[in-house]
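Morning, I've got a small favour to ask if you have a moment. You're getting the sequence in one-letter code plus the fold written as tokens. Thanks so much in advance, here it is:

===
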Amino acid sequence: MKRVLAVVSLVLVFAVILFATIFIKKSQTDYEEEVALHFTDVAEDAWYYPYVSDAYHREWFRGTSDKEFSPEAPLTRGEFAQVLYRYLGKPGILGFQNPFVDLSDPECKHAVIYLNKLGIISGKDATHYAPDEPITREEIFTFLYRLGGFKVHEEISPSGKFMDWQRISPWAVEAIDWAIEIGLLDGLSQSVLGPQEATDRAQAAKILCIYAKQAGYKTDTSNADRKLTLRVWQAGVDDSKRADAMKKLLNSYEKKHPGITVEYTPLPSGDGPYQKITKAIREGTAPDVLLVSAPFEATLADSGDLLPLDTLLSQSVLEDIQGGLLLDCNYDRDRNPELRDRLISVPFTASPRTLLVNKTLFQHFGISLPEEGYSYARLLFESEHLTGSRDGKVVYGYGARVSSPDLYLGMLWTKGESVIDPLSGKVAVNTYGWKEVTGLYESLYAKEITPDYQVSMDYYSMLNMFAAGSVAMMDASEHAAKFVQSQSGWEGRLHLCPYGNTDQRAAFCVGEVAVIPSASKHVVDSAELINFLLSTDSQYFFSQKTGDIPAVMSALDPDELAEDPRYTAYIPGLEDTKRMGSNAYRIYKEIRDSLRDHIEKGTDTVQYCKELSQTLSTQYID
């Protein structure tokens, strides 16, 4: 009997969808022009006039009285059920049972019974529909989503670009994503979605009119009938080899997506790429995807010009990115609280670390410039002598951030320590070596030779301090050197000391990142493109053509890295990251937060290592 009922229900669902499609096509031809309204509260110059006129004359909506429509009054759940029931042509309900005890109005009762039977609308609980409650934005789009039998991308969630995305009820997420993707749903503002806000009658009329025109639309970016252009800008492209590699990669993307054309623009470093990007964003002509050197994205995030990516990108892609790199792409500044702890960028390439040195300060303090082989012990010793004042300005010897564990872990890996023991697969942070290196790392802050001794500095601020001449040297990427060189007055003052295979470093850092400007016209398609750029094949192809280091673990080959003397020191860190598996990012974050808390509070080193070991063992490692 259950199987028979299931078949009957399935037939009913398909029947109503077919009926709705036929009815929609018919009604779309009935009113090609607006018909005058007799409602005294609907002005002809109101934004909602054409929608109210259309919805009223199609007999989907009625007035609240003979002379009033009440466009700004909240639409109730019962009223919306009746609107949707009329939209479907008021089918019969013979044989349908009523599970709700709070339905009294006959038409509302018929509408709710019918739509609930087909699984299109649902009650607040098993026996209450709550017809008099205002219908929320997330409820309307969920009911329409169910009506059309639509589908969405499995891993991309465009609702995540809004700062209140966590307020979306779990049952409404797919519907909200679908509505945003097809342009049916806009935010209350650029950053606020308001999923549980009430929907007024005028808004509901607009939603239903637009829905009717798009009722046959299935959300699917592989739809060959779609034609759109994605604009991609890449900053710091100074050689044809790099530009050609990106062009070939994007051509490959176009072949896989026939309806999409990618317009690629390389921006050479000498042409002021970041000034051009800033100007384009200010003028509203920004591209859909940007590839820029880290940490320029922090500037854009400060002013609200970037979308958070943590819900837009594929989870499988995010889990493949080197954990330490992904951690540095989180927004940890206070300039834009709405983006705090959100992912504002993703690494497209990794970069070997280098020591940025202010030659002027070294000369001022009478210290010789560091060369390859500069050890941590020497760096620490000379940082003390470089800390002081120059021209009335406080100068710090070394720029390090306790908010990032890269330097700390690099020291540990170089000493032969690891987070995960390579033999047992267990957490290995409670060892003598970990305690020894932790003590050395603490000395950076205890002696106040770094501006981050109060545990408040972020990478972009630190880099700006170096560029302003307040820091003598700092650990950064080769890409970051370009940022410093772009600042005025730096000609002939910057000295780069590559670490190479020394006892100093054993980690990569973020080189180039991909971001989506908040003004992007094709958010989901932009996210799909970034997913493609971070795929194993794309990363491997680009790195082979340009010599860059892939950002994703699946495209890294330790044997190939070992052939280059610059990279051999980084292999222990990559192997340790690989042992962390899909938990790498969360483990890095736990180490960062624990280390920051430990140094800020000045707790015992032995106790810190013991507690960190317990946390990682119980929460992240089986």
About this structure: The CA atoms of residues 194 and 590 lie 32 Å apart. Residues 1-33, 217-224 have pLDDT under 50 and may be disordered. The beta strands are 228-235, 260-267, 289-293, 346-358, 388-390, 393-399, 471-477, 494-498, 508-515, 549-550.
